[in-house]
Specification:
This protein has six helices and eight strands. By secondary structure, it is α/β, with parallel strands linked by helices. Helix 5 (about 185-205) packs across helix 6 (about 210-215). InterPro entries: Prot-tyrosine_phosphatase-like, Protein-Tyr_Phosphatase, PTP_cat, Tyr_Pase_cat, Tyr_Pase_dom.
């Protein structure tokens, strides 16, 4: 956890008791705008290493780091859990307010928004361009699960959670899947464990909740505290 404690990185952590170890976090390209650090961890799935990324909801000073991580790692599915209070100045809106928004040198365009099964699905288009070259674009879907209070372990209606799990499995999306909740642990742990269990059921027709929780807690011990 050495990088998480560096003075220049401390403001990038929501909670100083939920920090990523250096061996488990994504490394961002270092430049004048960032230190290469982000409060996020890779999480192994049942049949694939680093199948998921669990991260805290971005702060105003880390939203550019978040989108750079998504672009660099080529994560095409983002799952946003819990009812984030966007009126709080610490919780900037993750997606463009208009059709197109620029975050640093990254252009993000909102292509489509639809609501189904207590879930808002946003299709975004990411592109980094420079004077020297035009880099490849990335299509990203954000699944925003509604009716999940930050103070609750589960959403008030679990059908939305099950619906998102089903959509992800049917889409056969490219890994890793990025999972977000306010602290990067509480709800993320529930969802990563559910993904792990779905993979095991599909592969072996077996359910082992203890093993699923044990596996995902390796890189983030704060997952599923009770």
């Amino acid at each position: 956890m050495q990088a998480a404690y560096l003075l220049e990185n401390q403001e990038k952590n929501r909670y100083m008791h939920i920090l990523p170890a250096d061996f488990s976090r994504p490394f961002l390209p270092r430049n004048y705008e960032n230190t290469g650090y982000i409060n996020a961890v890779f999480v192994d799935g049942y049949s694939c290493k680093n199948a998921y990324i669990a991260t805290q909801y971005p702060l105003p000073q880390t939203i550019l780091d978040f989108w750079n991580m998504i672009y660099e790692i080529k994560s095409t599915v983002i799952v946003l859990l819990q009812d984030i209070d966007f009126q709080d100045s610490k919780n900037p809106q993750l997606w463009p307010s208009t059709d197109l928004e620029v975050f640093g040198n990254l252009q993000i365009e909102c292509q489509c928004v639809k609501t189904e099964d207590n879930t808002i699905v946003r299709e975004l288009y990411l592109r980094i361009s420079s004077e020297m070259e035009e880099k490849e674009s990335l299509s990203v879907n954000i699944f925003q699960v509604l009716n999940w209070p930050v103070t609750d372990n589960l959403p008030s209606d679990t059908s939305s959670l099950l619906s998102v799990l089903k959509k992800i499995k049917l889409s056969q999306c490219k890994l890793p899947i990025t999972v977000i909740c306010l602290d990067g642990a509480t709800a993320c742990g529930i969802f990563c464990a559910a993904l792990y269990l779905c993979d095991r059921i599909q592969s072996e027709q077996e359910v082992d909740i203890f093993q699923a929780v044990k596996c995902i807690k390796v890189n983030r011990p704060q997952f599923i505290s009770n």
